[in-house]
Specification:
Chain A: Its main location: membrane. Chain A: This is ABC transporter permease. Chain A: Keywords: Cell membrane, Membrane, Transmembrane, Transmembrane helix. The structure holds 2 protein chains of 2 kinds. By secondary structure, chain A is mostly helical. Chain A contains 16 helices and 6 strands. The relative contact order of chain A is 0.17. In chain B, helix 7 links the parallel strand 6 (157-163) and strand 7 (188-195). Chain B is α/β, with parallel strands linked by helices. Chain B has 2 domains: 27-136 and 277-293, Rossmann fold (3-Layer(aba) Sandwich); 138-275 and 309-320, 3-Layer(aba) Sandwich (Rossmann fold), CATH 3.40.50.2300. Chain B has a 6-stranded parallel sheet with strand order 2-1-3-4-5-11, sandwiched between helices. A 6-stranded mixed sheet of chain B has the order 7-6-8-9-10-12, with helices on both faces. Chain B is elongated. Classes of the chains: A mainly alpha, B alpha/beta. The A-B interface holds A 29, 31, 38-39, 41, 43-45, 48, 52, 142, 146-149, 151, 162, 234, 237-240, 242, 244-246, 286-287, 290-291, 293, 295-297, 299 and B 41-44, 46-47, 163, 166, 192-195, 197, 199-201, 204-206, 208-210, 212-213, 229, 232-233, 236, 240-242, 259, 324.
């Protein structure tokens, strides 16, 4: 009981922020929550938020695992571009869909393996190790597409981006499935505990018998796979691979989603579901700005302001300054402050030490 | 084995000796040699510009040396210096940024090598540092797109606009040109405008929201996209909303890349204004003219902003698909 209530309080800023952003969207655009079925597919602004947020949510799932080990993966945007480029060029060359998907996911796996080996075996700092692929990866994608936007005609591949499963857009289904599998892997087994322990202290985890290199490589591989799926979605959505722009800067959105979700960059503790909430907050803001009719020059300012509020609400230093009515330890100083201004009222509350 | 190695080593030495002795222009036997510092491969259009520059050079018997700057000005400056050192006959630059060129252009001027800017202008106090600039008038492009739409709809049309990257000069100018036409037609109005970052994915996402915000797209007569890629994204969004692009919502955009001709041939787009990738062609001509008769070209050579509509789309697609 105490555990769940403390978890609730910890997650309150994010959930509150998501609800606030959704309500703000609704105020700006009254039809925000209206949903209908169009061509066998759910259609509405709320669906857009989930559909457009899917790539960042997928990246955030992988990124949460990596950040929990006190790492970071800057290469996910470039991996998206690579997997998309492979899928589009292979489809254009006439390969069958299963092979195309296998190759695209395989590329993500290899990229993750590369990052994982650099971090776990060669012990390069994650930010530098993954920076290599962040820079080189986009070049690889451009090599594959020869600098062009490679378009393809393949209803099967296109369905991954703009199809639907029982009226729910495929990207949303894929994200939900990835979330479920990841949650099962880390929470139903001891894997999550080991990931957290590596994040807290790699050396003592190793002494305690955790196979730290394997755990580290595994999280980077998983992150690469998630990025490959996100890349497939983005490519399938526009029916073309845009190596210059696919996934550009999305690694930053993914890190932001994880941090907004309350996972510390110092590792050791993670909230998978909250990272998804973080991704949803970011996308709800993007969609809201588009619906609101603000000038595009304000997009980034609005986003920055909202994120600032969410992050401040989570700041431990700031929460000490703010009133905490339920916590008896904090009740006294507040009452004492009130005493100074309005003695009568404070006495009624009975605050005199 | 060692014979081949020796022969090639000898050949290499001979080439080095030749290069040290004569300028390559002479070595090529009176052939004009042009060094081209290209920005990098940022878009399909840019790749087409490079490809066209090569093809046009071949047509005129010019030897073209291309240096890819990978989006970095320092690489472009290095490339210009190396072209000066090689003693080329002219240097073409597609400048990645507008400022910071004075020093290196002075070096080229001192070496008496003319510099021609391609597709972008630079900011400098001393205009004599470059011979001429071959660029498109991006304000005019917006105007041509707007005028077509005004004519097509009889001047009555609520438009949604997909802007390019916020603050980029083509986005500012293409908006400006279109706005001029809107101001002249009281029945035309831009009801929504947002940035789609010049990309397909963002163009699609923004258009999805526009359709929802405007009563399922019923209030939208046309979409004006600052480039074809965003228009292609918007076309997909219109289709997914159960509307017909090209009929229910008109689609007009700028650039004239092959994919928009494909869409036009299928009746899903209505017009595009060409930003020609052939920037090098007019530059070669100006250069040859100057070498021959000493005629100094004007400071600005404006490329044509031609409008294309569906009736020529199929042929244009066939003509262009290999250039890009």
């Amino acid at each position: 009981m105490t555990l769940s209530s403390s978890a609730l309080r910890r997650n309150l800023p994010q959930c509150g922020a998501l609800i606030a952003v959704l309500l703000a969207n609704w105020l700006l655009f009254p039809d925000f929550f209206s949903i209908r079925v169009q061509d066998g597919r759910l259609f509405g602004s709320l669906i857009d938020v989930m559909n457009r947020g899917a790539p960042v949510a997928l990246l955030a799932i992988g990124m949460t695992m990596v950040i929990a080990t006190r790492g970071v993966d800057l290469s996910v945007g470039a991996v998206m571009a690579i997997s998309g480029a492979i899928a589009a060029t292979m489809t254009q060359a006439g390969w069958s869909l299963p092979l195309v998907l296998l190759a695209a996911l395989g590329a993500g796996l290899l990229c993750g393996l590369w990052n994982g080996v650099l971090v776990a075996v060669l012990r390069i700092q994650p930010i530098i190790a993954t920076l290599i692929l962040m820079v080189a990866g986009r070049g690889i994608a451009q090599l594959i597409t020869e600098g062009q936007i490679v378009t393809f005609v393949s209803p099967g591949l296109a369905a991954i981006g703009s199809g639907a499963v029982l009226t729910v857009p495929t990207p949303v289904v894929l994200t939900a499935a990835t979330l479920a599998v990841t949650a099962l892997l880390v929470r139903a087994t001891a894997l999550g505990l080991m990931i957290e322990s590596v994040g807290v202290n790699r050396l003592s985890s190793a002494y305690a018998g955790v196979n730290t290199p394997v755990i580290l490589i595994a999280v980077y591989v998983w992150c690469g796979l998630c990025a490959a799926v996100a890349g497939l979605i983005v490519t399938a959505d526009i029916r073309g691979a845009d190596a210059n722009n696919a996934g550009l800067w999305l690694e930053l959105d993914a890190i932001l989603a994880v941090v907004v979700g309350g996972t510390s960059l110092l590792g050791g503790r993670f909230g998978l579901l909250m990272s998804i909430v973080g991704a949803a907050i970011i996308q709800a803001m993007n969609t809201g700005i588009l619906l609101s009719g603000f000038k595009p020059e304000f997009n980034l300012i609005v986003k920055a302001a909202v994120l600032m509020v969410v992050l401040l609400a989570q700041s431990p230093a700031l929460s000490l300054l703010l009133p905490r009515p339920r916590s008896p330890a904090n009740a006294r100083p507040i009452a004492a402050k009130v005493t100074g201004k309005a003695p009568g009222k404070a006495h009624k509350e009975g605050s005199a030490p | 084995m060692s014979m081949t190695w020796l022969t090639s080593a000898f050949a290499a030495t001979a080439v080095v000796a030749l290069c040290a002795g004569f300028s390559p222009a002479q070595a090529a036997g009176g052939k004009l040699v042009v060094g081209f510092s290209q920005i990098g491969s940022e878009s399909g259009w840019r790749a087409a510009e490079t490809k066209t520059a090569k093809a046009e050079a071949e047509k005129r018997g010019i030897e073209l040396k291309i240096s890819d700057a990978q989006q970095k000005q320092e690489n472009q400056i290095k490339a210009v210096r190396s072209f000066v050192a090689q003693g080329v006959d002219a240097i073409f630059i597609a400048p990645v940024v507008a400022t910071g060129w004075d020093a290196v252009l002075k070096e080229a001027k001192e070496a008496k090598i003319p510099v021609i800017l391609l597709d972008r202008q630079i900011e400098t106090k001393d205009n004599s540092l470059y011979l001429t600039a071959v660029t498109s008038d991006t304000v005019h492009e917006g105007r041509v797109a707007g005028e077509w739409l005004a004519k097509k709809t009889g001047g009555k049309c609520p438009v949604v606009e997909l802007q390019g990257t916020v603050g980029s000069s083509p986005a500012i100018n293409r908006k400006k040109g279109f706005d001029e036409v809107v101001a002249k037609n009281p029945g035309m109005k831009i009801i929504r405008t947002q940035s789609g970052d010049f990309t397909r994915a963002k163009g699609k996402e923004v258009m999805e929201s526009f359709i929802k915000a405007e009563n399922g797209g019923k209030g939208i007569c046309a979409v004006y996209a600052h480039n074809d890629d965003m228009a292609v994204g918007a076309i997909q969004a219109i289709k997914e909303a159960g509307l017909k692009p090209g009929t229910d919502i008109l689609v007009v955009s700028i650039d004239a890349v092959p994919d928009i001709f494909k869409a036009m041939a299928e009746g899903e787009a209505n017009a595009t204004v060409e930003l020609t990738p052939n920037m090098a062609g007019p530059a070669y001509d100006a250069l040859i003219e100057m070498k021959k008769s000493g005629k100094v070209p004007p400071k600005w050579i404006q490329t044509e902003s031609a409008l294309f509509t569906p009736d020529t789309a199929k042929a244009e697609y066939e003509r262009r698909k290999d250039a890009y």
